[in-house]
Please model this.
Amino acid sequence: QVQLVESGGGLVQAGGSLRLSCAASGLTFSTYHMGWFRQAPGKEREFVTAISWSGSSTYYTDSVKGRFTISRDNARNTVYLQMNSLKPEDTATYYCAARSRAGWGPLMGQENQYNYWGQGTQVTVSS
Model:
């Protein structure tokens, strides 16, 4: 049974930092691209960033470029999201997702390209 478990969310002031983790089990982690999405109250879920199975390629939505960094540790079956210079508009539930490593590129921004999802972790940024 595949499980993706996010952690590291919380309440932080604007300008602060958080690091999210997503621990994967039940799949061969190193054969999956990984992504982070977020959903703010009353809004649709949106793509944040993705990393290729090897970690050699990354892809970010424009609103987080230069502030967020995705990374992975295949030995620990974990993907990370380092979030710096947080803004109130970053407030959302953050989800990690896994996609088998067929193809890479803008398609990583599409929810329907992912095979597995976590339950999410809440990030709240106060002004």
Remarks:
- The chain has a mean pLDDT of 96.
- The chain has no helices and eleven strands.
- The two ends are 40 Å apart (CA to CA).
- The first strand starts at residue 3 and ends at 7.
